[in-house]
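Suppose you are handed a protein chain with no further information: no name, no annotation, nothing but its sequence. What can you learn? This example shows the usual starting point.
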Amino acid sequence: MTKKIELYAPAKINLFLHIIGQRDDGYHQLQSVFQLIDWYDTVSLELIEADEIVRPVGADGVNAENDLVVRAARILKKYASYPYGVKIHLEKNIPMGAGLGGGSSDAASVLIGLNHLWGLGLRQSELTHLGLQLGADIPFFLFGQNAFVEGIGEQLNRLDLPEEQFLVIFPGQSVATKDVFRDDTLTRNHAPITISDFLASSWKDPKFGNDLQPVASKICPEVNRALDWIAQQAPDSVKRMTGSGSCVFAAIPKTISAPEVDRMLQKLPSGWVGRLVRGLKQNPAYNSV
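A reasonable first move is to predict its three-dimensional structure. Written in structure tokens, the prediction is:
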């Protein structure tokens, strides 16, 4: 039996994000397109005979009890009544509080990996049910493919998106998702669209945007600074914030070479992080099990 496994947990960007309503329970109903990108955390799982979940290495400033990877392992262990445990080593590369879904991706990778490592044989629908209890983005990473996303994040339809490269900028400050959604000025009545509407156009069309961007920019002015920086470096690009921020991104034509982008990134303000990333077709965590 396999006793150890290592998985790459990818980030995502939202090509657009519209809030179309709010449910009676307070959850917001959204429409979005989620694009996987090749910016990864690494999740290592090792079987242990002790009946416990341990995470000796994880994200800076996040204690094990609150870490989504530990919570994911515990909820799966309880659901499956599994008698033994696991040691989780999490190498964080994706910025936190950035709208890239890193924590959700890490948790999804734990569910995918432990389902294999513990020999549970659970269906993806069962993992999704568990994942949704921890976070609205986790079902997408369990789905494993680019998707048109609706509901609170649990309604997913596969999309075959064109292969693009993106410049992603983290402006050194995080944004708390709950603060954005609680803001009274947040748009909550965007007119719904259909998948056909999206496919008939381009995500770069001005009619698509991120309804969370104005609020996140108010909370964290660095968001606008990052958008302005991209506009200066790549003036012809369509730039947008991802998720609830604070990361912003722009599609970069393949005619612009990696060395050219590197020269752009050398001009980043101190404390910012930037990467040229590629869009992915599938969550690579599934290639490891």
